[in-house]
């Protein structure tokens, strides 16, 4: 589904046109370019675009079928970039992923989106507001999209930092919480983020080094900035992953300590009942000569003895930390 | 056993010939090539082929004896490639492996298969249907075979993703399941996949970089595509492996938590019987003056007392989560 | 907030001037340079500086917004460096972080600080005392700041060494201490340090290799010295991290051993009461012919028997290490 | 001790000679070379050889003293190679190691062996049977020895695969086996293999790349083959090592699960005896009015009650998997 | 403190001189050099040497203050090397560290030692005995010192191998030993060794590659030998470290197995007393019609019954491995 299409000239949007071939034909002045935005296109639908803009069949296949790895490919003098998009769904504490494929030629940009959460419309609006960036042509669009996507990575990573902090608090809290599954889920989310961030580093590094033909020379510092943000996301993810591993270890230790505490509590509790039972056993013996049995207050005495012994044990266990 | 042999000219199959030497002699026009497919050949059988096509003795040895590492070798102006094939056997939840060796010369392809599950016949049929790909000669055959094998890797990996999801669900389910052995088996399967995928990356990267002489220049983007799929398989396998490690850790934690729960349940259960036993012990004492013993309803009173205490303990343990 | 600004000529401070544009204009002789120190500037405030010194917008953005990754960037013929600062807060046993951004041109240095604990004022005073270093211009300032920051890293690392030693002592002490959380917190602090140290290594290596234009050639040995200190900090951090992992493992082992000890102690304790209870049970049997029951000293005999058996068990358990 | 010495000319063995200096003097035609095989030589003994063949003192020292790291060194125009040999001792399930040092000059090979299990005699016989290989001179000998040694690595690795399979079966068997020590021993053996295989990879890679002067150009594919086998050994060893780690984890999990099962079995067993004891306690109470006590069949009734309750518990525990 | 100083000419020691400036002045013939050995010099003391030999201030600072990282630096045409020395203190089973700094110029060597255990005096004596090595000038001294220090590394590593073997034996012994702390301490020692060995590898590799100006060309094979020994030390340390990790895991498993064994022993022991107690309980019931109570040998019968049942349980537990 074509979402938006327009011709840009000298940093400004010129009226759109539904006929893309005609639109491209009008991009005849230097710096002119057409930007077509597509969302989850069918194969047939996209075939038409591929013909108009001369897109390479392999790239077209990748763009139509989602679930690609982030990558940057050159076909002749056009560039093909695949990106994963990430966003954090608060209700589910989960990271969702989408995909953007970008075709960049001298005079056109074709952007293809998959997935619900990520949209490029506001990116286009912001870009249209920045005459200067737009004036850099398709390279400017590339930067704008990359910058936005990587900023979203950082936002997702910040949410995960919060989640890890919560898990940490829960691990070291006195409550019995099932932190193992939360840690597992977070590790899984981090894997998701890693799958988006890591393979993108090399393409962005190439852009930052200015070695990708078709991208303007002066753009390198901007891509270095993106590369830097990407590196920050990657480092934070690695840091969180290793923190979670430590947190998991700590959780295991807490379980063991707790089991030990429980075991000692149980034993102390058992002693409180077993020792009086022993006393009852003694006074249940059938010896003919047991003076206490004949005492008037023998029975109360026995009960008192039991209570005293149990109380003494209680105090002793309390003091030695077993209860 | 020779499975199929044919001469290809201008992207089309020309009639086959059982006499391979004659067949090769007919491949005299530019672009002509012979493709001989062999399955688990005996040493003698293959020696004959080696003479006809001038194959290098070291490569012949590797092709006849299976269990080689994936690799790409150049001998003079011919190329020798060894691949592992993978397929997933649903009944056994297991990954099976086979092997394909390919000899590529200017005017011939010799493919050698080992193992039952992988066949090249449909690959040949598909290739014969694509005049264009076939027109690229031995390089086209190389691409077709590689593409197919790597696509099968991705299918196997997808099945493993499902298996890991199942294990994960089982680990966090309330049932007592022996997940350790399932995780172990899956790790083993992942090792199998890794052994096929990892050593193939370097050869395919060389093909993708276009630095292997004997492979046509324009083919590089196609091999880059294969390389990319391979990278995806490799990354997914790594991701699954680390997920399994986390799942195993979580499994260990679950066992500990369960043991703790069991221990507390047992202790609570013990208390329910030990405390009434104590009461019985008290009324089994032989003191002469124990008023309750003379009560008409002393016995029911004692039973009621036991039931009340046990019931109170039950409620208390239920509330504090021990039962 | 501008903290200090001054013109330096031939290694000495020339009187300051509040009007920075005028100050820079006076830096007209070779070797002259202006050093402006700023603390947590607002965007507007800093915009003015950026104009006077011609700072690159991307760098300005990074300098104003803190939480950047350590990095070294070149924009035209000026250099932009971001550093993390670390200091150890004794009361909290915690590592705090701040940030310094440095802009270096041919004739100016702009230093921007974020965070409370790190100050550059004494660095400036020391530098002003060293005419020779100051004579090297902005490169000298760069060295002085880097040297100071990295020295602070080493101090922080030394404090962490002490903390790890304490944790180690606590793990192997006989007391029941909750070392898991202390180890976790220390791992977290080490992660903090790593986040400052690791990304700085590459920029400093470039300075040490003398490949950063704008930094004087003869300065390389000095930056090699800084690079070396940085490597020392990094290696110590890695060493501490792996020591902590081992300490954690040892802690887990201690918990298990302790639980085992407790279990045996409890069992031995239980035996001391259960065996006499059994004896009491025997003499509570109602057989008509039990000679002991009629003995004059039957009761004392039974009590003595119980005490003897319990005493014997006690000695036996003590000797076999169960009590 | 000199084991064998001979002159080889045009791919055939010429009669030996005890006087090595004379033997070497006779190696005057192109392609002629002398091969001297030595076993655990004394320093003096070897000094004599060193003089005759002009061996470098550092290499001589390494050859006489065993326990060197595998390495390839060039001294002038001769090559010095140190190899570890491995063999598997079935009785002990253990990997034994030996050492071979090879000196290769234009017209001589000196091979020095340490350790009992590896012998070069059959390698020499095989080589003498292959006129072609022998015709390649010292380079051919180098290949023959390397090929044989690396093939032995693969055999040892195959034995270890079998051992790991056994351990695996034992870990997941229902029997209580002490797998921890078997896994440890296997890890140790793998370390032994790794110490032989890993450092050899770089020298063989150099031989395979054809960058070692003194080794004939056409030999590269043969050394690539060796390199490939070495890579296979290395990958298998890594795979086994990580499998063993997983197996160990699984073993730990099995122990925990078993402990849990035992604990529940014990508790269930305890319940079977504790509950009847409680019933006995009830009928041991001394209330005056307990109707059952007067029943004719009160005693059998009580025994039946105990049996019924115990039987019911048994069934219940069986059904809930505790017994 | 200056320990020794002398002029060396043509491979022999010429009489020493307390006035170092004069001594250096006499080193005027080609190949002459002065070797000054210093032990823990004060800053002032060393300043004087620095002036005489023209040492770089940064190197002087590092040489006077110990606790540097091993490194090789070039200042102009002189070389500065820092080494860690290691030795094993048998009484404490501990690795001690010291430090050596070496300044090498065309005509001088200044060696600075820190710490007690390492001395260079015997190295100097040995060197003086070897006219040939001494004839290589400062480069020969460098080799002699490096060779000696690295040989000491190997000795320390050999001691640690013995320690690891002991720990291993202790882990798998039947005794209850606290191996966790021994393993921890050994890991710590290995870290100490690693800190000496690892950073030295790169400098020695540079020496072995012959790329350090100021070191004679022909010396490369000698430094390759040192490099090789260093690699051996590093590999052994890595191997020991991973063995210790495995040993620790095995230790954890042993603890668990032991706890399990203890638990079953305790339960079996409990059964031996609880079942007879139940029998006593039965004969303590107050039914009017209990035939056994009236038997003449009822009491002995009951005792025998208890003993029989306990004996039977004992046999059964023994056979099933619980006792």
UniProtKB/TrEMBL annotation, chains A, B, C, D, E:
Transmembrane annotation, as ranges: 266-285, 297-317
Record-linked SUPFAM superfamilies: CorA soluble domain-like, Magnesium transport protein CorA, transmembrane region
Major subcellular site: membrane
Catalyzed chemical reaction(s): Mg(2+)(in) = Mg(2+)(out)
Record-level GO cellular component terms: plasma membrane
Record carries keyword Transmembrane helix: yes
Alphabetical list of InterPro entries matching this protein: CorA_cytoplasmic_dom, CorA_TM1_TM2, Mg/Co-transport_prot_CorA, MgTranspt_CorA/ZnTranspt_ZntB
Topology with respect to the bilayer: Multi-pass membrane protein
Subcellular location: Cell membrane; Membrane
Keyword Membrane among record annotations: yes
CDD domains the UniProt entry points to: MtCorA-like
Keywords: Cell membrane, Ion transport, Magnesium, Membrane, Transmembrane, Transmembrane helix, Transport
GO MF annotation: an example: cobalt ion transmembrane transporter activity
Record function comment: Mediates influx of magnesium ions. Alternates between open and closed states. Activated by low cytoplasmic Mg(2+) levels. Inactive when cytoplasmic Mg(2+) levels are high.
Family: Belongs to the CorA metal ion transporter (MIT) (TC 1.A.35) family.
Name this protein carries in UniProt: Magnesium transport protein CorA
Organism of provenance: Nocardioides agri
């Amino acid at each position: 589904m074509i979402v938006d299409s327009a011709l840009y000239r000298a940093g400004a949007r010129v009226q759109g046109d539904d006929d893309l071939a005609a639109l491209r034909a009008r991009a005849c002045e230097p710096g002119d370019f057409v930007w077509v935005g597509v969302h989850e296109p069918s194969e047939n639908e996209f075939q038409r675009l591929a013909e108009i803009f001369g897109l390479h069949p392999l790239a077209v296949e990748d763009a139509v079928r989602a679930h690609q790895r982030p990558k940057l490919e050159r076909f002749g003098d056009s560039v093909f970039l695949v990106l994963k998009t990430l966003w954090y769904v608060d209700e589910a504490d989960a990271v969702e992923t989408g995909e953007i494929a970008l075709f960049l030629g001298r005079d056109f940009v074709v952007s293809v989106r998959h997935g619900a959460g990520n949209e490029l419309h506001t990116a286009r609006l912001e870009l249209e507001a920045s005459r200067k960036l737009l004036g850099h042509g398709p390279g400017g669009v590339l930067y704008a999209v990359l910058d936005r996507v990587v900023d979203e990575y950082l936002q997702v990573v910040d949410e995960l930092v919060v989640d890890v902090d919560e898990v940490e608090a829960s691990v070291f809290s006195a409550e019995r919480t099932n932190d193992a599954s939360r840690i597992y889920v977070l590790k899984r989310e981090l894997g998701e983020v890693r799958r988006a961030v890591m393979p993108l580093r090399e393409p962005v590094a190439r852009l930052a080094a200015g070695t990708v033909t078709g991208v303007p020379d002066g753009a390198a510092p901007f891509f270095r900035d993106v590369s830097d943000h990407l590196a920050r996301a990657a480092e934070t993810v690695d840091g969180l992953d290793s923190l979670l591993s430590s947190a998991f270890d700590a959780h295991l230790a807490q379980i063991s300590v707790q089991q030990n505490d429980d075991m000692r509590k149980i034993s102390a509790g058992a002693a409180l009942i077993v020792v009086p039972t022993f006393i009852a056993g003694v006074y249940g013996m059938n010896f003919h000569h047991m003076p206490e049995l004949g005492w008037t207050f023998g029975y109360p005495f026995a009960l008192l003895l039991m209570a005293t012994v149990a109380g003494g044990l209680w105090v002793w266990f309390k003091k030695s930390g077993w209860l």
